[in-house]
Amino acid sequence: MKYYIIIPAHNEEACISLTLESVILQTLPPKKVVVVNDHSNDSTPEIVEAFAQSVPYIELLNTTSDKSHMPGSKVINAFNKGLKTLDDNFDFIVKLDADIVLPKHYFQTISKIFTEYPKAGIAGGFAYEQDSQGNWHLNHPMSKTHVRGAFKSYFKTCFEAIGGLKNAMGWDTVDELLAQYHGFQVITDESLQVKHLRPTGTSYNRKARLLQGKAMYTMRYGLLITLIASLKMALKSKRPKVLFDNLQGYFQAISRGETFLVSSEEGEFIRGLRWKNIKSKLTN
What we know:
Layout: E1 3-9, H1 16-24, E2 32-38, H2 44-54, E3 58-63, H3 73-83, E4 92-96, E5 100-101, H4 106-116, E6 120-130, E7 136-138, E8 151-155, H5 156-161, H6 171-181, E9 185-196, H7 206-218, H8 223-237, H9 241-256, H10 264-283
Parallel strand pairs: 1-2, 1-4, 2-3, 6-9
Antiparallel strand pairs: 4-8, 5-9, 6-7, 6-8
Helix pairs in contact: 7-9, 8-9
């Protein structure tokens, strides 16, 4: 299978070399890798350019954007700029973070998943993070059926069906919900152990949590599902403020009349899917 990788990168000089090295070592190499240097003020572009000089399928795209790090819009803006430089001659496309180290067989296995599962639309492995003693541990706070936004692969027909990636907080949740709405499956493979070099959520702040609440509104969760999801996030992170900030963001979105990310019909499907998942966890 042919595939493209897009890597949004903002001030990633500490990690980008390891990420690109793991891509170069893949047993199934990519057709092209576009690293979108998003307003970096460190040596990220120089490091990527050095790789591009010796590896013909690696390209550097320099772009500018707002300096603030906001989950969702900033990274997807960069991704979409990279997407515009590519043609549509691919079987699957990958959104990869610049602080990820992949096992050598990662994309060969992804290709196998898309080949063996006719309904597979999104595929990926599981994130492992290093503790203070240097040991790697699974850190996958979402359901085992969820693929982390840091390393998501999309089969072409699925990517087109969901309309690409939404330029908003919650993009890596709504993509899977819409994929299922269109009849695709989300497939995870526990053998794909991905090293995540920077701990999850270290750059998230209160503004990001308000956006999380807004995302729940724009995905048409409704108040009760938003409350349950926010409570779960607060308990997992052991930070009660997550609950209150999410709910504040949700109600702010209502008062501002924010535009929904999904249609009314898609929203109805999403709520039904969410309730089904909630009930299954309560009965297990």
